[in-house]
Amino acid sequence: MTRWLTDLDRGFFDLVFPRDCAVTQEPMDEEARRHLSPAGAARLLRIHDPRCLSCGHPFEGLLEGDRACPHCLDLHPAFGRAVCAFRARGPARWIIHRIKYGRCPFLADDLAAAAVEDEVFRRHLAGSVLVPVPLHASRRRDRGYNQAERIAGRLASLVAGCRADPLLRKQHETPSQTKLGRQERRRNVAGAFIIAEGRPVDPATRYVVIDDVLTTGATLHACALTLRKAGAILVDAAALAHG
């Protein structure tokens, strides 16, 4: 219901005020995406190979020998691999901030659509069940929506063989991860997630945990660990941006 009302509001405002691209601020033409023009999408910093095969962060510069990723060196993630489409810098970071804190969930639709234009990202999701990182009930009420659910739903509509399933529940509220260090983030979300009541986990199904941003991987790791403890065998992760 909340998403329906939000989209209805956008439709009303689109009639009254011409839409501008969220990045360029230029008027939008009749394009596939509603709030992100091709010129705006071109300004997003995409992640290309070579990238970490664990957390998805791009390797920058030439690295001799084994490529040790400093972003997930000590994480030992419960997910097999994470893939991200963008760097959480510049326009991508600004859009995600508006999605999370600016009551603009509709921007997630276009950012997700731009993300699946990347073949590596799209292949990583294909044929899987997308499991959004849950918000605690109180946080969801305050925000009015869970951006990870919106992202997962949009990705599922765009990638072959995917469906979104809110398998996880956050059983207690945790402080924001924003100002916490690497080890503090892991402790903060340890044990925070459980399987939602009445949601079975199928060992034969591949699950991909979905979030807006991967920073240290702590939240995605905690969610993946919960799925594995419930019997999931194939668990990966994905986020729109790595920051």
3D architecture notes:
With 243 residues, the protein is α/β, with parallel strands linked by helices. It has one domain (2-58, 75-242): 3-Layer(aba) Sandwich (Rossmann fold). It is 36% helix and 15% strand. It has nine helices and seven strands, in the order ααβαααβααββαββαβ. α4 (107-115) crosses α7 (147-158). The model has no long low-confidence stretch (mean pLDDT 88).
Strand and helix layout:
Blueprint: H1 2-16, H2 38-42, E1 82-87, H3 90-101, H4 107-115, H5 119-125, E2 129-132, H6 137-143, H7 147-158, E3 163-164, E4 168-170, H8 182-189, E5 193-195, E6 206-214, H9 218-229, E7 234-242
Parallel strand pairs: 1-7, 2-3, 2-6, 6-7
Antiparallel strand pairs: 4-5
What would you report as the Rg, rounded to the nearest angstrom?
A: 18 Å
- CATH topology, by name, is Rossmann fold
- Main sheet, how many strands, which sense, barrel? 5 strands, parallel
So how many helices? 9
**Spatial gap, N to C terminus:** 31 Å
Percentage of residues in DSSP E strands: 5-15%
- Could you say how many structural domains there are in total? 1
CA-based shape: globular
Q: Which architecture would the CATH scheme give at its second level?
A: 3-Layer(aba) Sandwich
CATH class: Alpha Beta
Report the count of strand segments.
7
Major sheet: arrangement of strands: 1-7-6-2-3
Output the structural class.
alpha/beta
Q: What order do the SSEs take from the amino end to the carboxyl end, as H and E?
A: HHEHHHEHHEEHEEHE
Percent helix: 25-40%
Which regions have little confidence, pLDDT < 50, spanning 5+ residues? Answer: none
Average of the residue pLDDT scores: 88
